[in-house]
């Protein structure tokens, strides 16, 4: 059976169960509102444009935060790959920072930047930077010595060697690093928005919860899930697959 | 001594092993190669033949002696010496044409570089694969692209480090014929490292037989069999047996050491 048909059947069963359970009041609407209620909350949200503003605000923060973390991450990664001293000192710090969820920085960020956009972006940047750093570092270190030798026999040296051989050879790691940076940044953004101010998807989620609007809570959760799936599965995984294939890293 | 095109004199290569003992990889290597000569360097694994080629390429510094090419001391890699490795080492992010254009990029305008690259791709009979990426080609085709890429710089010397070692028998035979044709058309000087006796007899004007531990030149054999050589099977077999005779001692030495090494573990 076609996997897509399997998926459609699976979701139909889940939604049918959800619908029946709500209709027959197997649980209270405050615990889990019915699918129609969730749909209704989403339609209202889009009609009065709150959800649209939320989406724009969240994506703006994500774009700035992720953009900065990719730039800083790449810079740090190159530094760690090329300087042994930097790797032995700064590298340890990066490893330690990578192992903690970036949301723990939020209290500090609010003290530094105030309860605003900047604090959230700061957390997003911290979320994405280090995983990018580590991937770029490995990517550059793993460039096949054979490529470098071959390039040298063709008279390519110095900065040219970086530009024409080492960076292109590291592209699979750039793609993987970006995908993971996006995933971490997206989670950091939602956490940051939940705990700080709006507009934004995370903020609306908490706001709806504070007012007991469970239909909207679930609606926003579904939006967050769908965005995550689309970006990860449909964009990053496809790029990653085709790059790995062409670079001969996966048959 | 008559000055030849490539002069390798008293080349030594040592390195420190894990117990900090100095190990000789190459010892007192003296070798002269004439312009346009096809010279094979033949020896068992571990005899330092690839290291010697790498020194001539300028990729590995010698710890003693020097290599002169056209009276100039080799200190670093240069476009006068094209190199083909056992793995094709093509850049996966470039297609076939772009790979061959790679060494020409800074030398000439794009159009001219592409025309030049196409000329050499035709020589290796890959004109129909310009837009293919390396992962879409077979091992033999990749190696032919690598040869075209090395030739595109129009080097005087082609250094080949077991270029056909990873290929199957039929592909290898076909590439031997192609290489012979290319060599006679381009008049390049070729230094060809191999561990296959028959390969070296088939292709070269001279065979430098190396022994191991330390790597030294055991014998410098001139191959007088007329080309095309496949018409002279008898002479080839005789020469093969002759070379096998004194290489056997070296191979036995390697095997013995490996056994001793294993029994220590």
From TrEMBL, chain A:
Q: Does the keyword Manganese apply?
A: no
TM spans, by residue?
62-81, 93-113, 119-140, 161-185, 214-236
Q: Which GO terms describe its cellular component?
A: plasma membrane
Q: Which residues form the ABC transmembrane type-1 domain?
A: 55-235
**PROSITE patterns linked to this entry:** ABC_TM1 (PS50928)
Q: Is Ribosomal protein one of the keywords? A: no
The record's comment on protein family reads:
Belongs to the binding-protein-dependent transport system permease family.
* The protein, known as: ABC transporter permease
Q: Which organism is it from?
A: Mesobacillus subterraneus
* Phylogenetic classification of the source organism: Bacteria, Bacillati, Bacillota, Bacilli, Bacillales
């Amino acid at each position: 059976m076609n996997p897509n048909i399997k998926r459609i059947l699976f979701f139909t069963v889940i939604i049918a169960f959800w619908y029946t359970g709500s209709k027959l009041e197997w649980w209270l609407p405050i615990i889990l509102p019915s699918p129609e209620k969730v749909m209704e909350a989403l339609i209202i949200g889009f009609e009065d444009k709150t959800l649209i503003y939320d989406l724009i605000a969240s994506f703006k923060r994500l774009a700035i935060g992720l953009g900065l973390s990719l730039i800083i991450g790449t810079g740090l990664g190159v530094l760690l790959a090329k300087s042994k001293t930097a790797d032995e000192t700064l590298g340890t710090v990066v490893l330690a920072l990578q192992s903690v969820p970036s949301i723990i920085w939020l209290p500090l960020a609010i003290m530094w930047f105030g309860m605003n956009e900047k604090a959230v972006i700061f957390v997003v940047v911290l979320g994405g930077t280090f995983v990018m750093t580590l991937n770029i570092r490995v990517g550059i270190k793993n460039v096949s010595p054979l490529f470098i030798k071959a390039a040298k026999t063709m008279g390519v040296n110095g900065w040219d060697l970086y530009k024409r051989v080492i960076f292109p050879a590291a592209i699979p790691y750039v793609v993987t690093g970006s995908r993971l940076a996006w995933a971490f940044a997206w989670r950091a953004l939602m956490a940051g928005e939940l705990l700080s101010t709006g507009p934004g998807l995370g903020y609306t989620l908490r706001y709806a919860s504070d007012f007991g609007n469970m239909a909207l809570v679930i609606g926003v959760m579904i939006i967050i899930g769908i965005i995550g799936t689309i970006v990860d599965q449909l964009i990053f995984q496809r790029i990653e697959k085709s790059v790995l294939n062409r670079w001969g890293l996966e048959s | 001594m008559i000055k030849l095109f490539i002069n390798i004199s008293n080349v030594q290569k040592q390195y420190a092993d894990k117990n900090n003992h100095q190990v000789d990889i190459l010892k007192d290597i003296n070798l002269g190669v004439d312009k346009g000569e096809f010279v094979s360097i033949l020896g068992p694994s571990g005899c330092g033949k690839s290291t010697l080629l790498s020194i001539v390429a300028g990729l590995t510094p010698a710890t003693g002696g020097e290599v002169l090419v056209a009276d100039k001391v080799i200190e670093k890699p240069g476009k006068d010496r094209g190199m083909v490795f056992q793995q094709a080492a093509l850049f996966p992010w470039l297609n076939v044409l772009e790979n061959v254009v790679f060494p020409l990029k800074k030398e000439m305008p794009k159009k001219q570089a592409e025309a030049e690259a196409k000329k050499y791709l035709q020589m290796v009979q890959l004109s129909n694969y310009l837009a293919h990426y390396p992962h879409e080609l077979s091992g033999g085709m990749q190696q032919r692209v690598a040869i075209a890429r090395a030739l595109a710089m129009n080097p005087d010397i082609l250094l080949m480090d077991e270029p056909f070692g990873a290929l199957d028998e039929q592909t290898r035979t076909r590439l031997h014929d192609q290489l012979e044709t290319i060599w006679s058309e381009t008049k390049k000087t070729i230094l060809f490292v191999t561990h296959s006796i028959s390969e070296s007899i088939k292709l070269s004007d001279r065979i430098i037989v190396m022994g191991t531990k330390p790597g030294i030149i055991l014998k410098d054999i001139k191959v007088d069999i007329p080309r095309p050589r496949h018409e002279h099977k008898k002479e080839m077999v005789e020469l093969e047996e002759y070379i096998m005779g004194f290489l056997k001692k070296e191979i036995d030495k390697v095997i013995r050491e490996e056994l001793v090494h294993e029994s220590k573990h």
